[in-house]
Amino acid sequence: MLYKWLLVLPSMILPPKGRSGRMLLLGVSFSFLAFFALPTEIFSQNIRSRRLQERRQEAARQAQEEQKRLEAERNAPGGVPRPKPAVMNVDVQLLLSRDDHRSFAEAKRAPVSRVTDGEPLWLYVSFKGKLGDFVFSRRDPNELGRIEHLLFIEVGPQGDATTLSKYVFRFSKAELERTEIKLRLAPGMPGRNASSAVFLDAAGNRDPGIWNNEVRLTNSTLVPRPPTDNLAKIPISIDLTTSASEYRRMKREYTSMSIRGTADVKQLPIPAAFYNLPIKNRVQAELNKYGIRPSRFYFASEDWVEAGVSASSARQVRSVFAVFTYRNEEQCLYGLAEVREVFDLLSKKYVPEAIEIERDMTTPCTELE
Fold it and tell me: What value, to the nearest 5°, has the Cα angle with vertex 77 and ends 72 and 83?
C-alpha cells in the first residue's frame, strides 16, 4: 500500500506534460521508492543482527545460570564428583580419519585435516587414564537420585569461541572404564554413542567454499568460554568448492541412519535399550487422536539425544524416537514418534515441548507380531 502512494504522490505534486513530463514523473517515483526502500533494508538487517545478538546473550545467560546451579550442587554435602584437571591435547587427544579403524593407534596411520563434500569422517578419542576421570557429572535434572556422566562435543570456526553445533554425550557407569571412544561423524550409524550429528549439522548448512573449522571435546558448561577450556580440539577444513549437496543429504538422512542403519524408511528402526513409561504414555495419548492402537511399541533411541546451546540456538533440546506398528483394515503399517523436551530455567528440568507423529508407513505384517 505504501508503494502505491509513493507512485501516486509525485503525480499530485508534479502533473506530467507530454513525454518529458512522464519521464520526469517516472524518475521522481523511483527516487521516492529508493529513498524509502534503502532505510527499510538497513532496518531489516539491524533487526536480524539484533536478534542474533539476543540469542547469543540468552545462551550465555542460560549457561551462567546452569553453572551457578552446578557449583552449588557440587559444594553441597555428598555432591557429585568433579572431573580431573586436564591439559588440553595432552591428557585427552583427538584424531580424525576417513576410515573405520579398530583403535586410536591404528587411526594415527591415516589422519585427515581436510575433507571434501560427502567424504566419510570418524572421530577417535584417547584418554590418559580412563574416560571416567574427565567426564562432567551432575544430577539428572528430571531424576535427582540419578547421576549423569557427560561430555560435550562441538564444531566451530578455528580460533573462534563461536559454536556452530553442539551435542551432549551421556555415558553409563560401565563406559566410564574405557580408555578410548570412537564416533562416526559422517554419515550416521545406529548404536549407543556410535555417532553424532555435530559435524553434519555444521557441514550440511554451509554454502560453497572452504570452511576452516575445528572439533572440540570439553567437560565445561561455560558459554562462551576461553579457547583453552577444552579437553582437546582438532582442526578440520571442509572443502565445498565444487559441491555442498552430499553433506546436506547426509544431514537430512542422519536420523534414519542412526535409528535404522539405512536411509530407506521402508525398513523398521532397530529396537534400542531405552525405556520410559511416562514417555510411552504421552505418545499413546497422541496416537489416540488418530485412533491408533499399536500392536507393538518400542523405543529406537539408546538414550536421549541432546543438542546443546550454540550460535544458532539458545535452547537445550533433547529427543528420543519411538516406533509403533498397527493395522488399518487389511494394511500393516508402522509409525515413528519423535518426543522432544526443552530445558526450562525456572523449573531447572526438562519439560515437554512437542511430539511429532509420522504414520501410515507400510511394513510386512510379520513385523506386527
Answer: 65
